Amino acid sequence: MKVEERQKFLLILTIVVVALYVGDLLVFEPMGKLWKSRSDTIKELRKNVQEGKFLLARESAIRGQWEQMDTNTLSSNTSLAEQQMFTSFDNWSLDSGATVTGITPEWKNDSTNYMTLNCRVEASGDLRTLSRFVYDIEKGPTALKLDSIEFSAKDTGGQTLNLGLQISGLALTTLKK
After folding, report:
1. In the chain, N or C: fewer CB atoms in 10 Å?
2. Percent of the chain with pLDDT over 90
3. In which element (H, E) is residue 168 found?
4. Where are the domains of the chain?
């Protein structure tokens, strides 16, 4: 091969390599990223559709659970809600044998959709009765949350204990259908 032909060949080869590089940089790489992005979007949409189908299949069960939770919330009428709370504490103390020595209610308007009734509850008894009292509160159907629990000994032998509870009750203020 002559030098001039070799130079032409190398020049054409260089132009082809540069064209391929530019094509890869400007066409193939962005198209690959776009393809992967669309593929990820499709995968996410398929996942959302699958979750939606699952929720639709369980709609009646979920609505039933919500209705049960909705009926177990405290009344939006503050005096009625406090009465519900006091009655519940009386029932729990009778069932467990614990002695409730004080209940201090305080309302908080956290949102336009709900209010919380925060109560400080003082009770006394032995370990078995107080643990049963706390168990009954936790397992009861009422929408309550135990925020804190404090135990302290009332006597030097530790047979009688004091219990301090901080409890929050939920009252929905939205109109029920």
Report:
1. C
2. 49
3. strand 161-172
4. 3-57, 74-172
